[in-house]
Amino acid sequence: MQGLVYKSTGSWYVVRDQQGVFWNARIKGKLKIDDDISSTNPIAVGDTVIFDAEDEATKTGIISKIADRHNYIVRVSPHNRNQKHIVAANLDLALLIATIAEPRTSSGFIDRFLITAEAYHIPAIVVINKADLLKEKHKEQLREWQKTYGDAGYEVLPVVALEPDSLAQLSEKLKGKTTLFSGHSGVGKSTLINQLIPGIELRTANVSDWSGKGQHTTTFAEMFDLPEGGKIIDTPGVKEFGLIDFKKEELAHYFPEMRAVMNDCRFNNCLHINEPGCAVKAAVSDGTITVDRYASYLAIMDTIEKKW
Ligand SMILES: Nc1nc2c(ncn2[C@@H]2O[C@H](COP(=O)(O)OP(=O)(O)OP(=O)(O)O)[C@@H](O)[C@H]2O)c(=O)[nH]1
Ligand SMILES: [Zn+2]
């Protein structure tokens, strides 16, 4: 049978077959995979697998094969960069939930998320939750982000997870797609998912007992069906994704607005820092590329050798 992996808890996988029946499956023997990333988990949420029934009555199965992935996102262990965990596979969209008030997401965090999505070739959007809490100075920040990220080609959507009426535009974007949801603890990710999928009842926290360190200790991603078609992959406890190591010359490729002009740089190995004839710097000067994004580029460039 062919199935889709909805949840992975280490050695067991929740797999949905093509009739919509859920199975508990595990790997037995050697799995045929072309795993060139040597991850700690061979199978991830979002994977398509081939499996056989082991016991029809208890709906347990054995996975024998995993289909090629068209993309995947990896988390790198902060302690050992060689330890990689595939968080999710076969994504159509990556959604970052950010907030300007309670708590405040930093632009650096947003930039790193967008770069990661670019590196994995996954379209990304930024949702600004808790729009109901925005004071005048926050609204200023919202407009700034809409301009900065909008110019770079990303949508910035303000929503109020607690108000279903504010979610129509977002729902439309999620239809028929498999979307990864991520965000810092406390931004309202669970509230938003609960609102988009009535009845799943993910645990939410009260701001009063929000410690700033995150409530969840589990890091098992899980996939959920949206009522109008499409899927959400929730990644509890995953704050940041790790990038597969890349070189300094590659960073500009992950900024769409830089990618668009960098072919005009005088040197083809231009790092767009202080080289003469740099088209990226020219675009910053004439305002085509915003100063904020360029500053982010320089800041991230600075950390590449130090590893992030
Ligand atoms: N005012 C306001 N509060 C919200 C909104 N969305 C969520 N909250 C509140 O923010 C708090 C955190 O929401 P959660 O959904 O638990 O946040 P989370 O991102 O899932 O956080 P973790 O569970 O720690 O991962 C809760 O008290 C929610 O009621 C919103 O749109 N407006
Ligand atoms: Zn350049």
UniProtKB/TrEMBL annotation:
<feature type="binding site">
    <location>
        <position position="270"/>
    </location>
    <ligand>
        <name>Zn(2+)</name>
    </ligand>
</feature>
<dbReference type="GO" id="GO:0042274">
    <property type="term" value="P:ribosomal small subunit biogenesis"/>
</dbReference>
<keyword id="KW-0699">rRNA-binding</keyword>
<dbReference type="InterPro" id="IPR031944">
    <property type="entry name" value="RsgA_N"/>
</dbReference>
<keyword id="KW-0690">Ribosome biogenesis</keyword>
<feature type="binding site">
    <location>
        <position position="278"/>
    </location>
    <ligand>
        <name>Zn(2+)</name>
    </ligand>
</feature>
<protein>
    <recommendedName>
        <fullName>Small ribosomal subunit biogenesis GTPase RsgA</fullName>
        <ecNumber>3.6.1.-</ecNumber>
    </recommendedName>
</protein>
<feature type="binding site">
    <location>
        <position position="272"/>
    </location>
    <ligand>
        <name>Zn(2+)</name>
    </ligand>
</feature>
<dbReference type="InterPro" id="IPR027417">
    <property type="entry name" value="P-loop_NTPase"/>
</dbReference>
<keyword id="KW-0694">RNA-binding</keyword>
<keyword id="KW-0547">Nucleotide-binding</keyword>
<dbReference type="InterPro" id="IPR004881">
    <property type="entry name" value="Ribosome_biogen_GTPase_RsgA"/>
</dbReference>
<feature type="domain" description="EngC GTPase">
    <location>
        <begin position="89"/>
        <end position="239"/>
    </location>
</feature>
<dbReference type="Pfam" id="PF16745">
    <property type="entry name" value="RsgA_N"/>
</dbReference>
<keyword id="KW-0342">GTP-binding</keyword>
<feature type="binding site">
    <location>
        <begin position="183"/>
        <end position="191"/>
    </location>
    <ligand>
        <name>GTP</name>
    </ligand>
</feature>
<feature type="binding site">
    <location>
        <begin position="129"/>
        <end position="132"/>
    </location>
    <ligand>
        <name>GTP</name>
    </ligand>
</feature>
<comment type="similarity">
    <text>Belongs to the TRAFAC class YlqF/YawG GTPase family. RsgA subfamily.</text>
</comment>
<dbReference type="InterPro" id="IPR030378">
    <property type="entry name" value="G_CP_dom"/>
</dbReference>
<dbReference type="GO" id="GO:0005525">
    <property type="term" value="F:GTP binding"/>
</dbReference>
<dbReference type="GO" id="GO:0046872">
    <property type="term" value="F:metal ion binding"/>
</dbReference>
<keyword id="KW-0963">Cytoplasm</keyword>
<dbReference type="Pfam" id="PF03193">
    <property type="entry name" value="RsgA_GTPase"/>
</dbReference>
<dbReference type="GO" id="GO:0005737">
    <property type="term" value="C:cytoplasm"/>
</dbReference>
<keyword id="KW-0862">Zinc</keyword>
<feature type="domain" description="CP-type G">
    <location>
        <begin position="81"/>
        <end position="241"/>
    </location>
</feature>
<keyword id="KW-0479">Metal-binding</keyword>
<feature type="binding site">
    <location>
        <position position="265"/>
    </location>
    <ligand>
        <name>Zn(2+)</name>
    </ligand>
</feature>
<comment type="subunit">
    <text>Monomer. Associates with 30S ribosomal subunit, binds 16S rRNA.</text>
</comment>
<keyword id="KW-0378">Hydrolase</keyword>
<dbReference type="InterPro" id="IPR012340">
    <property type="entry name" value="NA-bd_OB-fold"/>
</dbReference>
<dbReference type="InterPro" id="IPR010914">
    <property type="entry name" value="RsgA_GTPase_dom"/>
</dbReference>
<comment type="function">
    <text>One of several proteins that assist in the late maturation steps of the functional core of the 30S ribosomal subunit. Helps release RbfA from mature subunits. May play a role in the assembly of ribosomal proteins into the subunit. Circularly permuted GTPase that catalyzes slow GTP hydrolysis, GTPase activity is stimulated by the 30S ribosomal subunit.</text>
</comment>
<dbReference type="GO" id="GO:0003924">
    <property type="term" value="F:GTPase activity"/>
</dbReference>
<dbReference type="GO" id="GO:0019843">
    <property type="term" value="F:rRNA binding"/>
</dbReference>
